[in-house]
Amino acid sequence: MSFRRRRKRKDRRRFRGVYLLPNLITTASLFAGFYAIVAAMDGRYYPAAIAILVSLVLDGLDGRVARMTKSTSDFGVQYDSLADLVAFGVAPGILVYHWALKPYHQFGWVATFLFVVCGALRLARFNVQQGSHDPRYFNGLPIPAAATMIATAIIFYYEIGEWAPERHVYILVMIYLLSFLMVSNVKYVSFKKMDLVQRHPFHSLVAAVLIFVVVATAPTIMGFLLMAAYVASGPISTIMYYRRRALLEKGESEPPIPNLTKPGLDLSRGGEAGKQA
Is the pLDDT of residue 195 over 80? Predict the structure, then answer.
């Protein structure tokens, strides 16, 4: 009995409560994903796609708020992963099935199930590999990006209207491709380490302004094109990643350069410039 009491007290000390603000934002993200499921089942595909984008914004906000307020916790990490599985796995899967994949019967719902399973595996692998890989890159397509690709594709089809081609075959292929990319080792650039407070080159500001103007001109079309470009950038990022890694390994394996200076001649100060320094 005494052992059980000590164990209960230890568990109580370990779990003393939760931080409200970041977890409430995560709950709002989960609510948006659940609303997307309900809207998709009712045949309201455009509002469902918008709800997934709202969930995306909230998902990016909860982590930043937790870091700014120093309220990060293991509970928040696990809760965020479960919310992501619903909002970016189940919700876009049900949405795309009702919107485009129903005519394919078992091939359609199998593709949807594959998307959800690969999203769950992607989240589990991300949680396990945290801190053990290059933070500048994602290992595989992030599940929020895959869900955003589906949502922006639906919005894009509604925007171009009668000019839209037959969507079933293209969407079926896209779902299988997104599922594969999520569990692959293809590297994708991560924007989490981008520090907007520090100084950056002037051309970075010009590029950001141009992107903002282009997106503001036609947000529904440019959102889809930007997401398609990000999904397609994976192979290029992978080549750059392994090339940089090979150069670093080559630099470490090279022998040190021998000292060829004559005895008594000190070149360590860099000549006249070194003397003036």
Answer: no
Q: In terms of residues, how long is the chain?
A: 277
- CATH numbers and ranges of domains, the chain: 16-193+201-252 (1.20.120.1760)
Rounded to the nearest 10 degrees, how much is the dihedral formed by the CA atoms of 196, 202, 207, 208?
30
pTM of the model: 0.80
Say how far apart CA 78 and CA 74 lie, in whole Å.
Answer: 6
pLDDT band at 184 (very low <50, low <70, confident <90, very high): very high
**CA dist., res. 167 & res. 8, Å (int):** 56
pLDDT, residue 201, reads 82
Examine the pLDDT at 268 and tell me if it is beyond 50: no
Q: Are 88 and 33 in contact (CB under 8 A)?
A: yes
Helix, strand, or coil here: 200? coil
- Name the H helices within 15-44: 20-41
Q: What is the dihedral of CA 21, 25, 28, 32, to 10 degrees?
A: 180
What DSSP state is assigned to residue 97? I
SS3 189: strand
d(CA 77, CA 68): 15
